[in-house]
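Please, structure for the following, as tokens.
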Amino acid sequence: MLDSRIFDLGDNKADRFLNQDNLYISIFIVETMAVASDHAETTKICSHCDRGIPSSNIDLHYAHCSRNLEKCKICDDMVPTKHADEHYSTTHAPVSCSLCNEMMEREILAVHKGEKCPKRIVTCDYCEFPLPATDLYEHQEVCGNRTELCHLCNKYIRLRERVAHEVTCNGVPNNTAEIPRAIREAEREHAARRPPPPPPQDFSARRLLFTIAITGIAILLGSLLFKENQTLVN
């Protein structure tokens, strides 16, 4: 143990204790650096797992490591040899999408289901109806052509043009929507005032005219025959 008399630098006890504490701190720092240096010098890298192992344990460690562990060829993790197949199947083996049955790497499955799978459920931009992504384009081509009345300008606007219309609509009412209704009402009034069409001719009237014509022809022929007979008698 250090003799405390070496710190007797003066009559001030506070200075003496301060110098003693500084000396102890300096000795601790030097010893710590020495231990760290010794540790660094006695560490070796295992050629099987690439880990730093104390030199005194390197042979025992290598024997155990090479016999029981192996490095994954995909992620470079050290896994127990008996669980290597399980590690691959649960971590790296291709998986099938439960919606479209496409095979892919496990790492991209979540992105595929959320953004790329053609069978994922999406909603229509116009009616918010849920449907598979493969049917979305055809559905929106029809749905987007439906019209709705703008209550600001009284115009019927296609749903696909609704957003742009809302930006440019000045809110001035447009009475063009009432014009077709006024035209229809005028046509109905005109039709009510128009005289009814004549009733169709009955079939019996046609038969009467035909009978009169036949009778007239018969009388004419009879008179001609009568005149010829009179001529022959004279």
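Helices lie at 13-41, 58-68, 84-91, 109-116, 136-143, 162-168, 179-193, 203-233. Residues 44 and 53 are 5 Å apart (CA to CA).
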